[in-house]
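Quick entry, no commentary yet.
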Amino acid sequence: MPEDLQALIDRLQRDAVEEGQRRAQAIVAEAEAKADALVREAESQGARLLERAERDAEAYTERSAHALEQAGRDLLIAVSHAVERLLSGLVHESLKEDLEPDLLAEMLAKMSEAYVARGGRERRMDVLLNEDDLEALVSLYAHRYRDRLIDGVELKLDNDIVKGFRVVMVEDHVEHDFTIDSIAEALTHHLRPHLARILPRVAPKALELLDTTPVEPG
């Protein structure tokens, strides 16, 4: 009887130990499974975050490139407008020196001759000038240009004209503008295509100079 009891006790101990081992193994397996699941979830979330970061980086790069391109275009347009204003100013200043009474008288005489040569029938022409040029042209026409003008040309005062003149064909109600502003605008318009060809070649060099110019410490 004691031997049977001991055997029972030994068997129960073995069963308890085995059960404990099984439970321990199950707990370990469950922990490993949970750990694996957590690792996979973390890896998956990390991959999603990385993919999102890459997409955001690509979008940011694209937006930055677009912004730089737009800034470059805006800069080129601003430079173009500045150069055009500078050119217009230079043309305007040059015309102030060139549009002297002698030149104005010659322009009027040639226009009158060309008008007659092309069969113009208009015989009444008003020439509008500022006060100084009007006085000078009256004197010039009286001495040198009277025989080169068609009949009916009348020189008149127009204080709104800074330099140059306007010609009004009275009967045809047609006006030709040869004032300094009109001539400067026409010349600038004529030169604009040349600027359009030059600026794209100059702009990269200008931007290169900007990139290489040392920045003074503040």
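second:
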Amino acid sequence: MWLWINGGSAVKNTGRLQVYTGNGKGKTTASLGLAVRAACSGMNVYIGQFLKGQDYSELCLPGRFPEITMEQFGTPEFILPGEKPSAVDIQLAEKGLAAVSAAMLSGEYHMIIADEICVAVYMGLLSEGKVLELADARPDSVEMVFTGRYAGEAVIEAADLVTEMMEIKHYYNTEKLAARTGIEN
């Protein structure tokens, strides 16, 4: 059992469900910052990335932080809103949900991050009901983080903390600047 430190005193079973959503930049980045902070505190972290099969800079985290385990559950292709996901996309998302659940229930991890899981629901790769079942099954000692645009009302209601990233201005729109290594990917 993990003991959380609160103002110098140990507190048992205070894990929460955090959701980072919205159209602004920074959802995955926020969760990765949490992962690094947790790892630097000696906590074991599992990160499951949905819809991602590309080579992102953060994939080096497990090599630099042995407390972090990371897996991707997506193809190298992006699914755009309005496109019908392929059977492979759905299978990978379901595999990801099973892996995240297994990690969460293993007793090995103090923090579980389901990166882009909200988008996986929005795109029809996973049902919101199954994602809510995952959240409901979370042991009290586990901190769980969901990221992605389009978090549904039921996920927001189930969460203990919700942060909406709101885009006010982004150089991608004004300069058509591609994703930069180390910054956006």
